[in-house]
Automatic annotation (TrEMBL):
It comes from the Bacteria. Keywords: Acetylation, Dioxygenase, Iron, Metal-binding, Oxidoreductase, Transit peptide. It comes from Noviherbaspirillum pedocola. This is MBL fold metallo-hydrolase. Signal peptide: none annotated. It holds the Pfam family Lactamase_B. One of its GO terms (molecular function) is sulfur dioxygenase activity. InterPro entries: Metallo-B-lactamas, Mito_Persulfide_Diox, POD-like_MBL-fold, RibonucZ/Hydroxyglut_hydro. One of its GO terms (biological process) is glutathione metabolic process.
Length: 249
């Protein structure tokens, strides 16, 4: 398998490029529209054809590149069927693997950050989106988020995966790249270390986070599989402007 972890600095989003060496096909998990040229360049360098884009959920902090990559690379759009987006080519459901050449992607419905959130297992790694971050988790106070549901998703699905499984989240804000199920079970300050549901509820209730700066533009745009709004305020233009450089983790 060919694997790349690509970082988009405006929203601190990790996008994952997974390639099948036998077929030359690839997919991107959680691609960001501002980094699209970076993805196409990486695919070209590796000699891969983009078959699918796959989103973990409807994002509130960036615009997905799914639609634009479909136009430019001919890829198909895969996203959780739960969200009933008319722009998707494939609706992802738990129990129905997504096959890319020799790669088999196992989908896990992990609601709580959003009600339609999915995580994806491939071999020895799991791509957890915002459900499980390194030493943290996504917030649960918008998009039908639910702290109880997130606690169950993590404890009943993600934490039941093998301890040595690698955890690749959708974001990190401290330049960390990867964790493991064992590490998060032991030391995640919100969800690990034997914390109870009641303790987790209390933690999430007291976060007092500010209203997301881009959510009112990102969610409608992502319900269309990645459309930047025409009336974007100047102070938010960085969320849709193509980057001149991108870091690779």
């Amino acid at each position: 398998m060919i694997f790349r972890q690509l970082f988009e600095p405006v929203s601190s989003t990790y996008t994952y490029l997974l390639g099948c060496e036998e077929s030359g096909q690839a997919l991107l998990i959680d691609p960001v529209i501002t980094a699209m040229d970076r993805y196409l360049a990486e695919l070209g360098k590796l000699g891969l054809q983009l078959a699918y884009t796959v989103d973990t959920h409807i994002h509130a902090d960036h615009i997905t590149a799914a639609l634009e990559l479909k136009k430019r690379a001919g890829s198909r759009i895969a996203a959780p069927a739960f969200d009933h987006l008319p722009c998707t080519d494939i609706g992802i459901e738990e129990g129905k693997p997504l096959q890319i050449g020799s790669l088999t992607i196992i989908a896990l419905h992990t609601p709580g950050h959003t009600d339609g959130h999915f995580s994806y297992v491939l071999g020895d790694r799991v791509f957890t989106g915002d459900a499980l971050l390194i030493d943290g988790c996504g917030r649960t106070d918008f998009q039908n988020g639910d702290a109880d549901a997130l606690y169950r998703s993590v404890h009943e699905k993600l934490f039941t995966l093998p301890d040595d499984m690698l955890v690749y989240p959708a974001h990190d804000y401290q330049q960390r790249h990867v964790s493991s199920i064992a590490q998060e079970k032991a030391r995640n300050p919100r969800l690990g270390g034997g914390r109870s549901l009641e303790e987790f509820r209390d933690i999430m209730d007291k976060l007092n986070l500010p209203y997301p700066a881009f959510i009112d533009h990102a969610v409608p745009g992502n319900r269309q599989c990645g459309v930047c709004p025409a009336d974007l305020p100047e102070k938010l233009e960085k969320y849709c402007r193509q980057m001149t450089a991108s870091l690779q983790g």
